[in-house]
Amino acid sequence: MRVLPTTIDGVIAEMESIIVECIRTNNRAGYFAALYYTVTCRIKKGIEAKEFEDNARMERLDVAFANRYLDAWYTWQSGGEPSLSWKAAFNASQHWSPVVLQHLLLGMNAHINLDLGAATVETMKGEDINGIHRDFNLINTILASMVYKVISQLNQVSPFMSLLGFHATNTNMMLVQFTIEQARDGAWVFAEELSRKEGQVALDCIHTRDLSIEKLGVNLANPKKLAKLTTLIIRVFEPNKASKVIEILKK
Fold it and tell me: What are the domain boundaries of the chain?
């Protein structure tokens, strides 16, 4: 069993190795890895600048949160079965048709909608979960502040992305931010529910959540009718080499 990191520097090192591997193998799973790497580096800067209410606790949360992704990744790479939500994201990375944005949203779906709540409960075990609510919300502020950069990067690799209505205008940036806020709020509700459970009941709660988030992921990866045609048009004009996209998203 692989030993997972215990510090944010260790998390960043693991992510860097995943990115290198995905670039080497042209693996589209590297899209989310690159995005997550930049977010983690930003959170590290926030911890060093003491932006959070409890910076030591924020590092523990960041590590617990990231380790759920790292565990899913290494489980998948070794031929095992990660959570259903991550399986939907990793399965999509094996196919040509999903656009870059779909891959990013699939990763966010699994990681925020499932992992964030579970990691929050793990971090606050034995304490009142409401004690971390302010810092939990501050993560969303950091994500929102990075939206413009991410949208600009996507425009470089996906010139027809505006067909989906996601381009770098204030209105549509707000639309993306709102999506993140919805995911965060759902993660908090899940964390509150999970914090009241223990043992097998808690595991059952996580599994039930995983089943519902998997459905969202499957729908993200397989849009219907007109949306499917639109994403196909967008995909035709995106780079075929995943390594090129990963390099841009990592900047």
Answer: 8-249
Please write the tens of the pLDDT for every residue from 79-135.
999 999 999 999 999 999 999 989 999 999 999 999 999 999 999 999 999 999 999
Closest CA to 23 of 250, 244, 248: 244
Residue 194 CA neighbour count, 13 Å, CB half: 28
Name the token pair of 114: 């499932």
**Which residues, 6 or more positions from 229, have their beta carbon under 8 angstroms from its beta carbon?**
none
| Close Cβ partners of 231 (under 8 Å, ≥ 6 residues apart) | 97, 98, 99, 102, 164, 223
Task: Please indicate whether residue 220 or residue 127 has the higher confidence score (pLDDT).
Answer: 127
Contact 234, 99 (CB under 8 A): yes
Sign of CA dihedral 140, 124, 131, 50: negative
Query: Six-digit token pair at 70?
Result: 């790292």
Q: Are 106 and 88 in contact (CB under 8 A)?
A: yes
Give me the DSSP letters along the chain: -PPPPSSHHHHHHHHHHHHHHHHHHT-TTHHHHHHHHHHHHHHHHHHHTT-SSSHHHHHHHHHHHHHHHHHHHHHHHTT----HHHHHHHHHTT-SSS-HHHHHHHHHHHIIIIIIHHHHHHHTTTS-GGGGHHHHHHHHHHHHHTHHHHHHHHHHH-TTGGGGT-SSSHHHHHHHHHHHHHHHHHHHHHHHHHHT--HHHHHHHHHHHHHHHHHHHHHHHS--HHHHHHHHHHHHTS-S-HHHHHHHHT-
Tokens 């993306």 -> residue? 176
